[in-house]
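Hey, I'm writing a tutorial for new members on how sequence and structure tokens pair up, and I'd like a real worked example in the thread rather than a made-up one. If someone can provide the structure for the chain below, I'll link this post from the tutorial.
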Amino acid sequence: MAYLDHASATPWHPAALATYQQVAGSLIADPTRRHAAGRRARDLLESARGAIAGMFGAPPDRIVMTSGGTEAIHLAVLGGVAANRTRPRRIVSSAVEHSAVLAAADASGYACAQVAVDRLGRVDLDGLRSELGKGAALVNLMHANHEVGTLQPVAEVAALCREHDALLHVDACQTAGRLPVDLGGLGAGGPGWSICPASPRWPRRCCSWRPTTPTVPRRGPRPTPTRCAGSCASGCQQRSTTWPSTAPTTVPRHTSSRSRRCTATAKRW
């Protein structure tokens, strides 16, 4: 039987699996500690952060590791509007956003509006312009649809958001590791751009592991934490990082043609 549901979950790449098993079995320390084992764990975590930052064309200090797509999306939506309370209390989403995005918008306490899409699933730019004219704190837009694969006009939407001083949340959960997600190249690098959650589902092409999804707050205030705990990771994420899960991101992409390089990376830790 052929397995075709890679948009939901995809098999491990052998090099990614080898890296994860080696790290999980040997580096057990908390990367926030200053002893030798903690520093080694921190070095690995920062190496993974740098690899992810390079993929997005973003500074490494703007990468926040989360436990998965749902947490990343909730941090982007709920934390994003909480950190920008001077903007109008409205959230605008395309009608085809993932249910986690729409649920987070509904949970925000803000007024919510949805913009229709055309027969191919692309957001109606005229409809979005009309909704932005009514004021909005945040616009939610997926990079690609998780069911039919439609690519959204991110650059055009980013321009509209800048024009109307709205933040833009780009959900790249289906494209990171499969398509280029360079934020500047997408036209999402200007002042109107806010946050991009990227997928944990990268093992085949990007060699990552499922329970880690980076969130990239690009510019302006960082998202407000959406849970209360000791501050173990960063100013906008208050929990300990599941750092062994980030290790496979250090394995080079397109490993089918670079097996030696992958093996060397797997042995590094």
